[in-house]
Design brief:
By secondary structure, the protein is mostly helical. It is 73% helix and 2% strand. The protein has five helices and two strands. Strands 1-2 form a two-stranded antiparallel ribbon. β1 and β2 form a beta hairpin. The longest helix has 31 residues. The chain starts with a helix and ends with a helix.
């Protein structure tokens, strides 16, 4: 269980740094985060989706590696696009906020998904599974349970405080 929790936090922090950097470079400013803590949960959940897909489905397939990679790529593209779309709708309905919009991009469907971003998530997912996962797993396995529990308490408190305000 702590593996999943720590995976969530590592990739949520990486997502936060990515978005912070991207917004600063493209817009010249730092965009406020939904949460107070420096995490973007959509990235952590996305990493867990990819991990579970790989572990429980694609590692068990008895087909050639190149076909696994092709099928994995298609599955990740579809799942992460659907996840981003549903997350956009959910946060808008729950919080009354639009956290991102791709209306200004070509090949967008509504405001929550677009082809360019879905392709980017797919490429990053392939890099995660085939390159970075082994390296981040070493870090994840070293994080003590007590630290993970503190992070969970901080995140729950942060979410609750943000829902109140």
């Amino acid at each position: 269980m702590y593996y999943y929790i720590n995976t969530f936090y590592i990739y949520s922090i990486i997502g936060y740094i990515y978005e912070l950097t991207l917004n600063y470079v493209t817009k010249g400013k730092i965009i406020n985060n939904l949460l107070t803590e420096p995490i973007k949960p959509i990235y952590g959940v996305g990493a867990i989706i990819i991990f579970l897909l790989d572990k429980y489905i694609f590692k068990k397939l008895k087909i050639k590696k190149k076909y696994k990679i092709i099928l994995f790529t298609i599955a990740v593209f579809i799942l992460l696009t659907l996840f981003e779309y549903l997350t956009g709708i959910f946060t808008h309905k729950l919080l009354g906020k639009t956290l991102w919009s791709y209306k200004h991009k070509h090949f967008h469907i509504g405001k929550y998904i677009c082809l360019q971003v879905s392709i980017l998530w797919t490429i990053l997912s392939l890099l995660y599974v085939y390159i970075f996962k082994k390296k981040t797993d070493k870090i994840i396995k070293k994080i003590p349970e007590w630290f993970s529990n503190i992070l969970i308490i901080i995140t729950i408190t942060d979410i609750l405080l943000n829902l109140i305000h």
